Amino acid sequence: MNVVDFFKQKRDVLSVHPFELKDLLSPSLRDYWLELINKANNSQLGVLIKDHKLASNDDVAVPVKPVVQPAPIVMKPEAQELLNELNDTLGEVIHVGEWLTVDQSRINSFADVTEDHQWIHTDPERAAAESPFKTTIAHGFLTLSLLSVLTDSVDPENQKFPTAKMTVNVGLNQVRFPYPVKAGNRVRASTKIQSVTPIKRGLEIVQELTVEIEGVRRPGCVAESVIRLHF
């Protein structure tokens, strides 16, 4: 009996018991047979898994969660009035603060609080000799920290949003220091409203704050600030 006839005769049995042939083969052919069986099983594995996933997706119904609509925000009259007012001024400068002098004493005090005593901030003699600015400069974070006073956010007698009971600083989306503030410079900040969103018990405002340096074309700081007003 030749090999072809042998396989034909054993075809039905091998389809159910594929490893029966292994016992009939010589050791050398047995290794090839086992390798062939392994490759066949591996090639079928991906198809079987795919068919199983498709069947599972078709047979099992995925429950659809109902869409829960958020409760409508009920705004106080003063909040609604400010919302309408600010929406009419989006992208425009709505506030310009007073000039503030950033002197060496203020810079030194900030250095003591933050423990940042780099000579470019606190050593006027070395700065005059080695710094390209020929003087000491304020810490960038000092300029940033002055935004509250520069935007009239801390003076109870001169508030930017006087109808709000409380202003909460949520954070900053972006901050840049285009040009250093030199010791003795005067600075002030302007405010542009980018967006206003009603929230529970108040408003969330995204504003662009620009710190102007007197006599300098480039600003000392540009920050995108997020605050919440509670009424």
From TrEMBL:
SUPFAM superfamilies (UniProt xref): Thioesterase/thiol ester dehydrase-isomerase
Residue ranges of domain MaoC-like in the record: 89-201
Record-linked InterPro entries: HotDog_dom_sf, MaoC-like_dom, NodN-like
Name the UniProt record assigns to this protein: MaoC family dehydratase
Organism, as annotated: Photobacterium chitinilyticum
